[in-house]
Amino acid sequence: MTDTPDDGWPESYSDPRDRPHPNELRVTVETGDEARAGTLDTAAAVADGESVPAVVSFASVADLRTILTDRRIELLRTLVETDGAAASITALSETLDRDYRPVHDDVTLLADYGLLFIVEEGQSKRPYVPYERIHLDVELVGDASDEEPAPA
Residue 23 forms beta bridges with which residues? Predict the structure, then answer.
């Protein structure tokens, strides 16, 4: 996803730092139908002038946990604490006291899922999080199906 030259934004917003962003990113676990309904509600709220968080949804808790490992959460937290950006992936890896390659891979993966942006400045790639806070919203409820639970 990060290699796509046309991401739907007008040319004036080619740099993600120039794009309008809410203060909060909400990361959720919800079905496709719930995500679609949430998107429609968000569009209506924005049309009414309300401020709403950006949302990234995962289909299951397992999917979310696969992407948001402890190290990737630490990476996101570090970016939020440093006004949303690192000078480069190299600088971020030094701040995290981690090798460059795994940090680069994590930044790329998080960008592919829309959890951060990559700003290209010359030969440098700057990881960028425009949000003041990231809220993980995982609701655990009982299964509503009629199936009997498997015996222990």
Answer: none
